Amino acid sequence: MKKKIAVTLDENLVAFLDTVAKGNRSDYLNNLLATHRKQVLESQLIAALATDVEDPNYQQEILAWDNVAGDGIDAEG
């Protein structure tokens, strides 16, 4: 779903947008923001994972899960 909004840009940014958007400002801005959003979310995920790696409780949970997940599995059978 798309929603129409109004934004105010500097004239030089509008000129740049018109140059790079090749006629469709909305598509260009949607793609630009979607790409930036993905980068921000990936950075947040990496930061959260880095925090987890340093958390001893999290490491204990991983160890416990590895023990449970491998319990009774015959790799050769």
**Which word captures the global form?**
elongated
How much strand content do the residues show? under 5%
Computed over alpha carbons, the radius of gyration is 24 Å
SSE sequence, one letter per element: HHH
Please describe the biggest sheet, giving its number of strands, its sense, and whether it closes into a barrel: none
Protein name: CopG family transcriptional regulator
Describe this structure as you would to a colleague:
With 77 residues, this protein is an all-alpha fold. It is 73% helix and 0% strand. The protein contains three helices and no strands.
Please outline the helices and strands:
Layout (H helix, E strand, L loop, with lengths): L10 H11 L3 H30 L1 H15 L7
Helix pairs in contact: 1-2
Protein name: CopG family transcriptional regulator
Summarize the structure.
The chain is mainly α and 77 residues long. It has helices spanning 11-21, 25-54, 56-70.
Question: Which tags fit this structure?
Answer:
single chain, 77 residues, mainly alpha, 73% helix, 0% strand, CopG family transcriptional regulator
